[in-house]
Amino acid sequence: MKADAKTEREVMDTLGAFIRAYRDRDLDRILGLFAPDPDVVFYGNGEDEKSIGLSGIKEQAEHDWSQSAAVSLQIKWVSVSMAAPVAWLSADLEILAEGGGVEMSLPARLTAVLERRGEKWLFMQLHVSLPTREEGENK
Length: 139
Hints:
This protein is α+β, with helices and mostly antiparallel strands. The chain has helices at 5-24, 27-31, 53-66; strands at 41-43, 50-52, 70-83, 86-99, 102-117, 120-129.
């Protein structure tokens, strides 16, 4: 079911905090947005980018940052749904990256599952991927 306005705002605040922390390369802020559970998962775009637990997420973020001089994410579209105390979101993003003197803009997709713990929404699962460009448009 579509999230109520309060939940949508809170979940979007958590997503925004993740985007800012990722851009700023602030590992402590990123890790504070994920549940400390051993089964929390962060999937990246690469075949080997399945990070489990906070230590795996830390390694993935550091690996990502080692591959670029700067990265930022811009939300183009988002949908937030919920069934208390769980929320999930889908988003279209634009990844802006700079590395080796080259600037890139890539379309991306993000899905996430969050759980409300106390007064905070924490990521339980986060997945970012790049859509394939090999397929024709579905009209």
